[in-house]
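pasting for ref
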Amino acid sequence: MGVEIASLEPKEVWSFFHEITKYPRPSKKEEKIVAYVEQLAAELGYPLKKDELGNIVITKPASPGMENRKPVVIQAHLDMVTEKNRDVEFDFENDSIQTYIDDGWVKAKGTTLGADNGMGVAMGMAVLASKDIKHPPYELLLTLDEETGLTGAIQLGTDLLKSEILINLDTEDDHTFSIGCAGGLNTIGHFPFERKSIYDSEYSYYEVGVKGLMGGHSGIEIHEGRAAATKLLTRLLFNLHEKYDVLINSMDSGNKHNAIPREGFAKVAIPSNNLDDALKMIVTFKKRFQNEYKSVEKNLDITVQEINSFDSVFDKDSQERILRAFMVMPHGVFRMSPDIEGLVQTSTNFAVIKTKENEVEILTSQRSSSHTEKMYFADIIMNVIDLGGGKAVFSDGYPSWEPNMDSPILNVAKKIHQDIFGSEPVVEAIHAGLECGLIGDKYPNMDMLSFGPTIKEPHTPDEKIEIVTVENTWKLLLGILENIPEKN
């Protein structure tokens, strides 16, 4: 179990990652991991300061002979996405992540692993704690609440950093340097409805579920055509509503704006005289979905289970308009980049449906490397919500990070990669959101680069990190730190 990973190489990195897994760190609830970081800084004797939000910077002097190099900040975020399988008992606010090794990868038992971005934090801490790594004047920046809207970077203090170079350790492909990213925006919809009473004798009561989907990071995997539970659940309910007058008590799917929803469930009342036909329709749609996604979603399942009766459902008019709005709610890739081959330019994620007492709330997430296209797509979502009788609310959003192929730190990193691995790295912009764009707004003269080890299925309980790539990233990081150019 977990202690096994502490003995992996490089030990100085994996031992910190193992420690990090012990501390709960959901977005907006990072108090326990922050206390651990504060204790570590105190034990090492390095000054720590915070901005108004609570973002942390720890400062370490240059190693001997490196005092005249440009100062460098390593940046990672402390929070993690908290996703688990429905049948797993786990409390993300109190329990430690249960890690294990499987065929060259580190995984977690039934939950997200938190390698995103715990491994970046671990590497930053390992540099901080080391007595023999060669590095210039060094800052470790640990931001809060990245996963629910990059709040930490948005509210980052403008007098917190002294560095001229930033290395972000939050990308997830080995031998790859990221030099740009998409901007993003969340659009939330509130759909009011009235509850009406129903008579037990006229209905049978069931929970229908969409399960077994891959899910994934809505910035990294959105182009792969994975199914969204929000859309499949809506399709099923819309057809049951249209043909058999099925009534909805609740519908819920997804948890995070940046995760493609893996599961969705609805409690429904089926008119008893339509029960057999309605159940047959559910089986038909299960086969239909499985056929549509046969090359992508190997474990897609539609479940139906009889449940105890409930006494209220959506009023029919509200149910009609909500289902119609959800049926036309966009999800997926809108446009590929005309300039960078293979890069998604604009997408939207129909991420969350939550039923409250008299309201259905949805959360959607728009990403684009074009600000105007991002706002255009947010307007599309707003109009869908409005036509469905809802009210749209926008988040503040975050800017894109414009690529700079002439970046001095990129040139240093490419040379180091060639020296260590004997090959050219991949240099790319990504569709996921990084904090670099926001940090660059606060520190416009900062030269920035992002890289990291290979992480697959982030934001899902299948998240895993490839062990050998951690060592590759660590060697690369140390080589870059040792070769930072001198101050002008």
